[in-house]
Design goal:
This protein is α+β, with helices and mostly antiparallel strands and about 475 residues long. The protein has twelve helices and 19 strands. Helix 8 runs parallel beside helix 9. The radius of gyration is 29 Å and the shape is elongated. The structure holds one RNA strand of 76 nucleotides.
Length: about 475
RNA sequence: GGGCCGUUAGCUCAACCGGCAGAGCAGGGCACUCUUAAUGCCAAGGCUGGAGGUUCGAUUCCUCCACGGCCUACCA
């Protein structure tokens, strides 16, 4: 280890502990979470954690010790500890991890405190923690050195513990409904299930390129063919695209499929799932997100995609000239877009999406932008599909799954004619699977990171991902 | 990829029109046995993100580079 790492004479402290015959990096220590301790607790209790502050008073000192459950004040007193242990205490620093044994008491100011009778050093800090009062604010360091963020910023600790609780609640909810949690490949020979640029990697022994998956969809539906009726996967997908407050190159998606169901069932399920998470974890139907308050009270709004355009005077959304007219009437830049769907998408993003604060289902989409969805009964130009918007963000996407192999193949062929940056290859293996018969099914995808953003009031996806993608320093 | 903003001590922040780079906390020393942003005293801490340029003189003005943030774009 280099000299400059051993800051501020802490190297000498390491030497001091060694000179006392004590290994400054300790071993197993049996302890209780500090938050579980109450004043009526009698006898010796053991706790362990990081020393966050030291207030020295000559022959005594108060410290705050933090473990994952919370903080507790501890009191070191020379006449209680004796010469040897008090000398050891003097060689403790803010940031050290220690195991402490003692008795609980309440101070004159009414604070629960552990009177330390014995302690061991479990890990010596040889750097300096960020400042105790302002914490760690530099966002770059917070992302790069998340461990410091977690030590110094309780709000950050809170967001990630909520993320875990949300995921557990989702899993419990689905497991109770009989869904199987499955794991499908993350390395795909042909990327599919979404429209996105993939990451490419290479397998040496097979001498072949593989793609990090952009969605698990096509594999999960192969499981429906195989007779698994309710499956879900919560894991990473990867998209080789720009980074923003809403996009991280690797992100977590929930995808689930229910045989013999449809998009309506998925709409009910989405409502039930998110309502359940709110009830169990937040005990509230309202969440503050930025400047707005989101009301999750049932039932959620439903708007037909086709009806979105009527407020702009667009009666026929295939009328490209009319759409362009609207852009010019609204003084909205078309940004060089010519394609009808791209223009509508842009109009939606600029004018409609920001207003969708309370949960809103957008229903029934054109087939052209929904290559894996089952057509609308009696209208083959539209499909049974919805998207869910909350807080102005797209959070979920679901549809009745297309299970007709012939139509699916035709849709894939049409897709190839589009301007996709994906490899121009059809997943014939998937078509073959459909040819063996896939039950009709409802499928649902939920962007977990975005859902966690909304539920925790985080305005950047980087605040809900422990280690977001960053360029390496220097 | 484009635009704007930022980068000063371990951390949080100052430094007027270009004139010796400053504080709090942390760290070091001393004192102090109920403090909680403990307190008091002493000492230390810097290649101002990097490289050039303008200038007698650059943290400050200019150019390029690196990293980050926000917006935008690609995209759900």
């Amino acid at each position: 280890m280099s000299e400059d790492v051993l800051k501020n004479d802490k190297k000498n402290k390491i030497e001091w502990w060694k000179s006392q015959g004590i290994e400054p990096y300790g071993r197993k220590f049996t302890r209780e979470p500090v938050a579980s301790l109450t004043p009526d607790r009698k006898g010796i209790v053991s706790i362990a954690g990081r020393i966050m502050t030291i207030r020295r008073h000559g022959k005594a000192a108060f410290c705050d010790v933090m473990d994952q459950s919370g903080k507790i004040q501890v009191y070191f007193k020379k006449d209680i500890l004796g010469e040897i242990l008090f000398e050891r205490f003097k060689n403790l620093d803010v940031g050290d991890i220690a195991g402490l044994k003692g008795e609980l008491f309440v101070t004159h100011t009414g604070q629960l405190t552990l009177l330390v009778k014995d302690f061991v050093l479990l890990s010596k800090i040889i750097r300096t923690l960020p400042e105790k009062w302002h914490g760690l604010k530099d966002v770059e360091i917070r992302y790069r050195k998340r461990y410091l963020d977690l030590i110094m910023n309780p709000e950050s600790q809170k967001v990630f513990s909520l993320r875990i609780k949300i995921l557990n609640a989702i899993r419990n909810f689905l497991n109770n409904l009989g869904y199987f949690e499955v794991e499908t490949p993350m390395m795909h020979p042909i990327p599919g299930g979404a429209e996105a640029r993939p990451f490419i990697t290479h397998h040496n022994a097979l001498d072949m390129d593989l793609y990090l998956r952009i969605a698990p969809e096509l594999y999960l539906k192969r499981l429906l063919v195989g007779g698994m009726e309710k499956v879900y996967e919560i894991n990473r997908s990867f998209r080789n695209e720009g980074i923003s407050t809403l996009h991280n190159p690797e992100f977590t998606m929930l995808e689930l499929y229910s045989a013999y169901g449809d998009y309506q069932e998925m709409m009910d399920l989405t409502q039930d799932l998110i309502s359940c998470v709110l009830r169990e974890i937040f005990d509230s139907q309202e969440i503050d997100f930025g400047d707005t308050r989101i009301n999750f009270g049932l039932p959620w709004k439903k708007i037909y995609w086709e009806d979105c355009w009527k407020r702009f005077g667009i009666e026929n959304w295939r009328d490209k000239n009319k759409i362009k007219q609207v852009f010019s009437d609204l003084h909205l830049d078309t940004e060089g877009k010519e394609d009808t769907f791209e223009l509508l998408d842009l109009l939606f993003k600029r004018k409609i999406e920001p207003e969708l604060i309370d949960p809103t289902f957008i229903i029934k989409f054109p087939v052209e932008i929904s290559p894996l969805s089952k057509s609308w009964p009696g209208d083959p130009s539209m499909v049974e599909r919805f998207e869910l918007y909350v807080g102005g963000l797209e959070v979920a996407n679901a549809y009745s799954e297309l299970n007709d192999p012939i139509e699916q193949n035709e849709r894939f062929i049409k897709e190839l004619e589009g301007p996709s940056e994906r490899p121009k290859v059809i997943d014939q293996d998937y078509i073959e699977a459909l040819e063996y018969g896939m039950p009709p099914a409802g499928g649902l995808g939920i962007g977990i990171d975005r859902l966690v953003m909304i539920l925790t009031g985080s305005l950047s996806i980087r605040d809900v991902i422990l280690f977001p993608v960053l360029r390496p320093k220097q």
